[in-house]
Design a protein that fits this description.
Keywords: ATP-binding, Cobalamin biosynthesis, Nucleotide-binding, Transferase
Shape: globular
Mean pLDDT: 90
Distance between the termini: 60 Å
Pathway: Cofactor biosynthesis; adenosylcobalamin biosynthesis; adenosylcobalamin from cob(II)yrinate a,c-diamide: step 2/7
Structural class: mainly alpha
Pfam families: Cob_adeno_trans (PF01923)
CATH class: Mainly Alpha
EC number: 2.5.1.17
Strand order of the largest sheet: 1-2
CATH superfamily: Cobalamin adenosyltransferase-like
Number of strands: 2
InterPro entries: CblAdoTrfase-like, CblAdoTrfase-like_sf, PduO-typ
Low-confidence stretches: none
Length: about 190
């Protein structure tokens, strides 16, 4: 199987069901951003420290779930010849699993009463990037949903996933003993 087909050289791509669409089609944007997020999670796994390695298995599981979500987003429901991979039971269990992680990490990290700036350790900073890519994926999914029927079970999971990445970033800073910087209202400090 060749990696290149030359079919996309004119800005078009074939989606599941053999339909040809523009590469900036809402469906392609939704599953493409989900794929970008999945790749970013793989990068995070590659930079985990000895202190944060406990996150590896759950991040890999998130990659598996994102692959299912991406498959469902890439699959026009009206032409679907199979059931969704991210079914209601999986979605419910995965979302509850994320909520348990969020609660655990929020309890472990120091309490904050102000907004925090994304950053800290490299792992925490990468998790914060994952949070923002998740939010972008969510916006792309909402756009797609406004145009056509999608697997609605992905919405709650993706929304909770961004919360997970925020909590995991804070937890990673806690594990790596990195202080978080709180937002202080911008001032010119270089006068």
């Amino acid at each position: 199987m060749k990696i290149y087909t030359r079919a996309g050289d004119k800005g078009r791509t074939q989606i599941i069901g053999h339909q040809i669409v523009s590469k900036d089609d809402a469906r392609v944007e939704a599953y493409g951003t989900t794929d970008e997020l999945n790749s970013w999670v793989g990068y995070i796994i590659s930079i985990l420290t000895a202190q944060t390695t406990e996150l590896a298995d759950e991040l890999e599981e998130i990659q598996q779930l994102l692959f299912d979500v991406g498959n469902d987003l890439a699959n026009p429901s009206e032409k679907s010849h199979r059931d969704y991979k991210f079914d209601p039971q999986t979605a419910e269990e995965a979302t509850k699993w994320l909520e348990g992680k969020i609660d655990r990490y929020t309890q472990a990290a120091p309490q904050v009463k102000k907004f925090i700036l994304p950053g800290g350790s490299p792992v925490a900073a990468a998790l914060q990037v994952a949070r923002t890519v998740t939010r972008r994926a969510e916006r792309r999914i909402v756009t797609l949903k406004a145009q056509t029927a999608i697997n609605n079970d992905v919405m709650g999971f993706i929304n909770r996933l961004s919360d997970y990445f925020f909590a995991a970033a804070r937890y990673a800073n806690y594990l790596d003993k990195r202080k978080e910087i709180t937002y202080r209202n911008s001032k010119l400090i270089f006068r």
